[in-house]
Write a structure and sequence with these properties.
With 373 residues, the chain is of the alpha/beta class. It is 43% helix and 9% strand. About 8% of the residues have low confidence.
Length: 373
């Protein structure tokens, strides 16, 4: 059971309690599940009882007592313990990480992507417009105008890079996207891989304006990957830092940690092959809960980044995945004369899942995920 599935399970428990007349509340739109805090236990905890206490007119602990029986009997839930003022601490069955890992490895770098719509995508844009006053490129054939998300940005490099990343994220969630800019320099395509569908004034139909705080210096000397990270990692309202720190091969550089964690996961796969075994999803008793939570949260992060036109959410999420994965990766392979076991295969599968999420997220940001670093 993934965190997203567990959240749905908690909401279903609330709905069953309401239907049974044990709670008189409106079922909320979502339930937050996260690794337990201090004093908690199990795999995940939720504060849903505290959230519902006031509308239910009951103490949080009593609401938690009502919900507990509706959670204990669910497949995949091993136990539910009440702590503090009314936190529900949920222990999952041993196969919980296996289901999440299997889902990630099955989807590959498209894990978290939504199904594409039936309508065709817009045609590929040219590498760069021929002139600043180039006309708008035509819309995709047979696509209703109101079905296309129109992004428009000023003649600013950071704005164009952010719009390019937003378009990638929206497309991964099934949207049709068209990017226009008030100006475009040819070198931006060659240096940073950005493209637009049209250059000139904003289209007649109201677009979504992409106008982040401009970069204080030219990021092109950093190269494609570091420059895109420098422009995309900060939120749009924050001024990006443009300096050599984005090129540093050390832990203090978040981009390095993300790419290093991915490269380490790929190296583990190669090393395991040399030892004669491959990944196989299965129970991982010592699986880090923060890593599982971050991997399970990836689809929600992609959806939120698309909804808020905020690729910086993906960048920060990748840092969280990398920081949770890096301490785990050295435990994957057998040590000394130890022979590969089912536990090693399951750990390798979890490591590969982490690498897959990192590669998929970097790709959406337009940044390379090298196998060797």
């Amino acid at each position: 059971m993934t965190p997203a599935e567990l959240s749905s399970t908690v909401l279903h428990a609330v709905r069953r309690a309401v239907d049974a007349g044990e709670l008189d509340v409106t079922v909320p739109a979502r339930a937050v599940v996260a690794p337990p805090g201090p004093g908690g236990c199990g795999d995940y905890a939720t504060n849903i009882a505290l959230q519902l206490a006031r509308p239910a007119g009951q103490p949080p602990y009593r609401v938690a007592e009502v919900l507990r029986p509706y959670l204990v009997g669910v497949d995949g839930v091993a136990d539910v313990v009440l702590t503090g003022p009314g936190f529900l601490n949920i222990s999952l069955g041993g196969a919980a990480p296996a289901a999440l890992v299997e889902e990630i490895l099955s989807a590959g770098t498209r894990y978290g992507h939504a199904d594409a719509p039936d309508a065709p995508d817009a045609p590929d844009a040219p590498d760069a417009p021929d002139a600043p006053d180039a006309p708008d490129a035509p819309d995709a054939p047979d696509v209703p105008d109101n079905s296309v998300v129109r992004l428009h940005c000023p003649h600013d490099l950071r704005a164009v890079v952010v719009a390019d990343a937003v378009a990638r994220v929206l497309r991964c969630q099934g949207a049709l996207v068209r990017v226009t800019a008030e100006g475009f320099d040819r070198e931006w395509t060659a240096a940073l891989g950005v493209r637009v569908d049209g250059v000139g004034p904003a289209p007649v139909s109201p677009p979504v304006t992409v106008r982040p705080v401009p970069a204080p210096a030219d990021p092109l000397p950093l190269g494609r990957d570091a420059a895109r990270w420098a422009l995309l990692h900060p939120a749009a309202h924050d001024r990006p830092r443009i300096g050599d720190e984005h090129l540093a091969q050390r832990e203090g550089n978040p981009l390095f940690r993300v790419r290093y964690a991915h490269a380490r996961s790929r190296a583990l796969t190669r090393n395991a092959a040399d030892l004669g075994f491959a990944a196989e999803p299965g129970p991982v008793p010592d699986a880090p809960q923060d890593l599982l939570a971050a991997l399970g949260d990836h689809p929600r992060v992609l959806a939120a980044a698309a909804a808020h036109r905020a690729p910086d959410r993906i960048a920060r999420h990748l840092v969280a995945v990398a920081d949770a994965a890096l301490p785990f990766l050295p435990t994957v392979l057998p040590r000394g004369g130890e022979k590969p076991s089912a536990a090693h295969r399951a750990r390798l599968a979890l490591a590969e899942a982490a690498g897959t999420v990192l590669a998929g997220g970097l790709t959406l940001l337009g940044i390379d995920a090298p196998d060797h670093l």
